[in-house]
Amino acid sequence: MQFPKTAAFGLSWETRGCARLLAVFASVLLLGCGQPAEILKTADQTGPTCLPTPADNLPWAQFHEQPITVFPYMATYGACGKTLIYVAARHQADARTPTHQLVIRALKSFNPGPGLVLVEGYVSTAINQPAELLRKADLEEGQPSDSEALLAIRTAHQMGGDFRGAEAPDDYSLPLLLPLGFDAHDQMNFHILRSIERWMREDQLTDHRELNLADHIERVNAAMAPAVRDALTAPLSVQGFVAWYEAMNGVSFADGYQPEDAYFTHPRFNRRSNDLARAVADIRDRHIVEVIADSLQRHEKIIVVYGGGHHLIHAKALEHALGPPKITR
Asked: What is the pTM of this model?
């Protein structure tokens, strides 16, 4: 599989590692940016298998070993009478960004319209999901919390296409976390931990120590799957979250919190919460590929709009199923 040679991760920790990335960027310029770089090597195959399997996913523990890649790009697969376009996004809210333009190009490339659009950030099993997602997409348009996923929902609706989330519900993930040594408290407190950076990016928080963190935790409580709520010995709370964080990582939450605490992979940062992050991420991407496979059985045309890192995780599974993609920017 061929990807463009590039110079920066489109991931949330990129701004904290800019010095290293600038150095890599300089070295890439010296080597010449015009040549494609092979990002993932897949095993030889006799032909496409038509449906991807999560067993072919790259583990997140190996992600940082992959050559540095810039997002966004668009990977187009075609085999078995199916077409799948994967928009490997760089998360941004501004409608003028390359990611948003690629989303529009991807949807408009299907005529009369996409069969199904799968978007990041929304659970695949939500009741009345189309109406709820469309309402959120319309409310968030132009706001700091807008996203390429919500743009894809709005555009698909305008074109008459269907859309749904592809995220794993909590009651899917918990049974897979238990054998790894994590429980419902770890799962739900990690939900809070990984959301703090997003809440600050969206101006819902200005500091991780703010008292209104309690409001956000209450929303996590309200959205919790019943099976997971039943597995908790106490409701989530600010005090409980802080105690969990400090027991998990061995540092003060007030003074020791870093956004990297919730990252799946980072070459020079690893705490116990990162082990949990990788376990959650592998389970999450297992479910995403299962949703893609199920959707390919039901639709001839699929568009997947997810962060670029997920495409690198899914790339081998997708290539085994549908053959090498065409990469465009």
From this structure: 0.80
